[in-house]
Amino acid sequence: MKKLKIADGIHMLTMNVDDILFEGMWEIANGVTLNSYIVQGDKTAIIDGVIGWDGVPETLYKNLEEIGVEPKNINYLIVNHMEPDHSGWISNFRKIKEDFTIICTDKAAKMVASFYGEDNIRIVKEGDTLDLGKGKVLSFHPVPNVHWPDTMYTYERDTKTLFSCDMFGAFGRMGDHCFDDDLTPEEVDFFEFEGIRYYSNVMTTFTPSLRKAIEKAKTLEINIIAPGHGPVYRKNPQKIIDDYTRFSRYAEGAGKNEVAILWGSMYGMTAKAVDYVEGILKREGVKYNKIEMPQESDSEMVATVFKSAGVIIAAPTYEYKLFPPVAAALNELGRKRITGKLAFRFGSYGWSGGAEKELNEIMERNKMNWDFIESVEFEGAPKEEDLIKIEARVLELIKKMREKVLEP
Ligand SMILES: Cc1cc2nc3c(=O)[nH]c(=O)nc-3n(C[C@H](O)[C@H](O)[C@H](O)COP(=O)(O)O)c2cc1C
Ligand SMILES: [Fe+2]
Ligand SMILES: [Fe+2]
Q1: Which stretches does DSSP call E strand in 350-403?
Q2: Which CATH superfamily is domain 2-250 in?
Q3: Is 320 touching ligand 1 by the criterion CB < 6 Å?
Q4: pLDDT tens digits along 146-187
Q5: Ligand 2: distance of its center to the CA of 148 in Å?
Q6: CB-ligand 1 contact for 381 (6 Å cutoff)
């Protein structure tokens, strides 16, 4: 666990977590941070007491003491979001202190009671404030369905700091650099992709609500954005606001100038055509990423397709349907409501085909509204004439992709 001073009277405690499936399902290759914030006036508040979730409150208490906070003197627990990655500390804290007040929205209050059995709760609404003394005044701003219905921003007026919880967060463990102005160019790129991974894996289903939260952030004068996961933005908080605005468009079909090849093959027939397509993309100077299912994690698959302006789906027929690992991947993208992607599919079959039918069913059922270039299906190994067709359609995809490209 690391402690950092964000501003006078405001500290961050942050911990890297590596060995979990996030939300019980996402295999996050580069880990995640859990960030807590402590604001000290005459009274002390802790925002998103995440740490202790793993049962090590002692480490937390020691760290608090090192920044001059006696854990027993914490007056307020501010729960921006009830998901246990942000609130897991409540039960541990209860063991050492009797009288503290939890501050949260009405929707969170119901959950605080049902998850932790707590009832000393002050429910806050848009614009309510809490004066901690010594000039530190917090205000509260609900941003419903930024992940869960209960979520809110907490804003500190004196330092103009937005504690944004899941909003503006990123996956990826932090080393020594936790502020945007400390990050090396490589770390900036790392956190951009980890931001995309986070947005696409966890947040993208709620894109309409995230857009409202972006608008709400714009109504506040912000010097610092301090999220619940990932780096703190103090030099250029506008960057992460702009990034999230762009990600919200990726959710609806825009993307980087890149192609995602989402593919799977049982005996290498479809794979032969994938090799051929790679040759075309290289020749045309188009950046691409190959995602082979089921070998690749869903986390990487969703993030890669999400950020790409063009998608090539390569998969054969299996038991009269689409090769199941690729069908499962597309279903996952549908559940995440990743819509409007420009796509092209090809694949091998043995006798009857059937993959194409299921592909269309997945698109329909999930209302994905992807824009497809006509598919190419071939019997057995791809023949010269199949490859010629595939090449023409890949070139068509590359041309049409330009309309979808949205770069920083
Ligand atoms: C388990 C299994 C199920 C299959 N089911 C079908 C099918 O229902 N209809 C069909 O036309 N071909 C079917 N095939 C044949 C494959 O589509 C064919 O072998 C194709 O070339 C596989 O491409 P791949 O080598 O890229 O996996 C099946 C093959 C396997 C191994
Ligand atoms: Fe969350
Ligand atoms: Fe979270």
Answers
A1: 371-379
A2: Ribonuclease Z/Hydroxyacylglutathione hydrolase-like (3.60.15.10)
A3: yes
A4: 999 999 999 999 999 999 999 999 999 999 999 999 999 999
A5: 6
A6: no
